[in-house]
Amino acid sequence: MTFKIGLTGGVASGKSTVSELFAAHGVAIIDADEISRELVEPGMPCYREIVSYFGNAALMPDNTLNRAWLREKVFTDEQHRQRLEQILHPAIKQQLRIRADNCRSAYCILSVPLLIEAGLQTTVDRILVIDCTPSTQMERLLQRPGIDAQMAEAIIATQVTPEQRLNFADDVIRNDDTRESLVAAVEQLHFKYLNLSEQSL
């Protein structure tokens, strides 16, 4: 069975960048966001459930989901957010398990933004948290299209606090420094995870 590393962190902490650096070492990356996008393609069961709940207002003219509209709905209304998570989380969890079971690298990275919030920490062997200061997080978030300060604060409010997340961490990468330091931190952990995966066999 493949050794599984759960990679998580607050929004805009740098999870994608860290995933890319691990991938450069030949590590399989299983990305929950990517799975989520696949699950909501037109015609998929999750897509149909979302449209059934939110109505046609959730659709773009080409019948794909209007992500900006949905984001505003779920981050300003707790009931809407919970319903969307009820639709998506079980399907995402199932796909994470299937893809991890089929992984052929020495270990795999499961990149799951809401690993702690969704209670998925028991599905991995080790948890790597990407952490950064709140000011860095806000600065990066505001650079994303369609996100203002109010929306950024609403998104952050739906996630566990950095302190809560760090309580679950086996390993931590601080991502406030240079790319060089990030590359070095990933390389160090890569060799650590190779050793741990060998020991787990």
From TrEMBL:
InterPro entries: Depp_CoAkinase, P-loop_NTPase. One of its GO terms (biological process) is coenzyme A biosynthetic process. ATP binds at residues 12-17. It holds the Pfam family CoaE. Pathway: Cofactor biosynthesis; coenzyme A biosynthesis; CoA from (R)-pantothenate: step 5/5. It comes from the Bacteria. Its EC number is 2.7.1.24. SUPFAM superfamilies: P-loop containing nucleoside triphosphate hydrolases (SSF52540). Catalyzes the phosphorylation of the 3'-hydroxyl group of dephosphocoenzyme A to form coenzyme A. The gene is coaE. It is found in: Cytoplasm. Its main location: cytoplasm. Transmembrane segments: none annotated. Belongs to the CoaE family. One of its GO terms (cellular component) is cytoplasm. PANTHER family: BIFUNCTIONAL COENZYME A SYNTHASE-RELATED, DEPHOSPHO-COA KINASE-RELATED. Keywords: ATP-binding, Coenzyme A biosynthesis, Cytoplasm, Kinase, Nucleotide-binding, Transferase. This is Dephospho-CoA kinase. NCBIfam families: dephospho-CoA kinase. It catalyses: 3'-dephospho-CoA + ATP = ADP + CoA + H(+). One of its GO terms (molecular function) is ATP binding. It is an enzyme of class 2 (transferase). It comes from Methylophaga lonarensis MPL.
